[in-house]
Amino acid sequence: MSLYEASFRLKHECPYRKISERYPDLTIREWYLSDCQVLEITSAEAPTDELLAGIERIGTVLHEPTDDSGLHVVTQSCLCSLEGSILERFEEHNCLYQPPTIHRQGWEHYTVIAFDEADVKALFRDLETDRDIELLSKTAITEQGIPHSMLAPVDQLFEGLTDRQLAALQLALERGYYEQPRGTSLRELASRTSVARSTYEEHLRKAENKLVANAGTYLRLVTTGTEADPLGTDRSDRPEQRAD
C-alpha cells in the first residue's frame, strides 16, 4: 500500500487572512482542539503596538513577548469564529489533516495524508470550486512508516468518550491494570469508586472500544510498509475452530 502526502496552500476569507497579508513576515501556526484553537504567532521583527493590538483581538493571549528581539505570542480562540467546513471536507475525501495549519502572506498552508491518490485529486477538485488553491507538493510514500511529523490530534483519539469512561480508563492505567502481570483487578478498581463493579467495567470496556476505534485510522498509517502479515493471520470469515 502507498500513502500520499499532499501539501497545498489556498486563499479565502478567514479571520487571519488580513493580518497575515498586512504583515508579510508574520507566521501563524494554528492547532484545532475540541472546542477552541491555539495559535502560535511568530516573526523575526519586533512587533508594533498596532500588531499587538490586532493579535489581542484574535483571542485570549496565553503568552506574550518579553523583549524587543522579535515576536512569539500564543493565543487561544473560540472555534465559533472559524469556518470549520474545510476539515470536514478533508474527512469526506478520506484525507487525514496533518496539523498545524500555517498562515503566511494571506495564504493558508495545509498538509494531508491519503491512502489513495484519487482521494487527493477529488479533494482538490472540491476545494477549487470556492477557493484559490495551489499544489505545493504531492509525494507517494511507499514501504516506510508513518511520517515523523504526523501526529494524531489528542481530541480525535478521545472523541466520544464520556467523563466517566475517561475516569475509568485513567484509574485503570494509574493502578497498573494494563501492566503484565496486572497490578490490580477489576474488583479492586471498582472498590475505589462509588459505582458497582459491573458499572465500572462497562465504563472501562466502552472507553477501550472507543479509543481503539478512534485510533484505527492512525493504526493503518503506522502499519503501512511493515511486514505483510507478521502474525500469519487467517482473515477468512469462518469462525475459529476449537477442539472440544
Task: Describe the protein.
The chain is α+β, with helices and mostly antiparallel strands and 244 residues long. The protein folds into two domains: 141 residues, no CATH class; 70 residues. Helix content is 34%, strand content 25%. It contains eight helices and nine strands. Strands 1, 2, 3, 4, 5, 6, 7, 8 and 9 form a nine-stranded antiparallel β-sheet that branches. Strand 2 and strand 3 form a beta hairpin. Helix 6 crosses helix 8. The protein is globular and about 60 Å long. The mean pLDDT is 81.
Distance between the termini: 40 Å
Helix content: 25-40%
Report the average pLDDT across residues. 81
Assign an overall shape.
Answer: globular
Total of helices:
8
Order of helices and strands: EHEEHEEHEEEHEHHHH
What integer value in Å does the Rg equal? 23 Å
Q: Supply the number of structural domains.
A: 2
Number of strands: 9
Low-confidence stretches: none
Structural class: alpha+beta
Please describe the biggest sheet, giving its number of strands, its sense, and whether it closes into a barrel.
9 strands, antiparallel
Estimate what percentage of residues fall within beta strands: 25-35%
